[in-house]
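TA notes, week 10

Several of you asked for a full example with nothing omitted. So below is the full record: structure tokens for the whole chain, then the designed sequence directly under it. When grading your own attempts, check the secondary structure regions first.
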């Protein structure tokens, strides 16, 4: 079974002298959908940025898709990022582009897809999430619910190997939450994408999560058959 994420005794954070998580041991294989919960400031965003190669690990080992990521070259980062779909906190969109341009960007340049193929790929998602009326608007014209829906669709468009969702339910109305949950259930059933979901709030996990972790000021602990471990030295 392919290992998508592997941290071994890693120190993670913005400051080498004051890592937010240390030591972190975390392994996620293909199909091992994972939920990590924790309050603001405990290291969720730093962990996401480390997975994306924006932050480095200060100590220990880190692999993505079975490739060493301690000091990755640019070509490897580009390859890895094409395999990841990301919904950042607040569903961040590019402000100078319309909703359509935000959605089409990775299809047009990441996969060199023709315009008519882009529209064919987008249309089912636009229908499902009610986004047709928003296509010519800019991110500044959207409310939090609309921004999060657009960001979620952008994250799943390419059928990524790894889907990272950072607080996907924040700002959504009940209908938006149901639509995201329905889409996640479909993604799990298709079996091609592994989900890594981060949440500031404790949420009732879906039945498909194989690993559940809790970030606290003392690090990452977990529950299930395989524990997610990160306990600070006292």
């Amino acid at each position: 079974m392919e290992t998508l994420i592997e941290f071994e005794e890693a120190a993670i954070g913005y400051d080498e002298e004051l890592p937010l998580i240390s030591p972190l041991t975390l392994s996620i294989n293909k199909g091992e959908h994972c939920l990590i919960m924790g309050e603001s400031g405990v290291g969720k965003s730093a962990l996401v940025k480390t997975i994306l190669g924006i932050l480095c690990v200060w100590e220990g080992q880190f692999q993505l898709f079975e490739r060493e990521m301690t000091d990755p070259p640019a070509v490897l980062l580009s390859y890895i990022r094409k395999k990841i779909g990301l919904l950042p906190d607040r569903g961040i969109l590019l402000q100078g582009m319309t909703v359509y341009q935000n959605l089409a960007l990775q299809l047009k340049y990441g996969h060199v897809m023709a315009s008519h193929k882009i529209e064919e790929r987008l249309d089912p998602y636009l229908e499902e999430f009610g986004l047709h009326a928003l296509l010519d608007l800019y991110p500044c014209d959207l409310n939090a619910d609309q921004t999060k829906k657009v960001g979620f669709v952008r994250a799943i468009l390419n059928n990524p190997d790894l889907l990272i969702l950072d607080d996907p339910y924040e700002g959504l109305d009940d209908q938006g939450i149901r639509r995201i949950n329905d889409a996640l259930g479909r993604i799990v059933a298709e079996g091609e994408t592994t989900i890594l979901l981060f949440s500031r709030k404790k949420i009732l996990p879906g039945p498909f999560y194989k690993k559940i972790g809790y970030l606290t000021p003392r690090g990452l602990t977990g529950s299930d058959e395989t524990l997610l471990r990160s306990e600070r030295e006292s």
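The chain has six helices and eleven strands. Use that as a sanity check on your answer.
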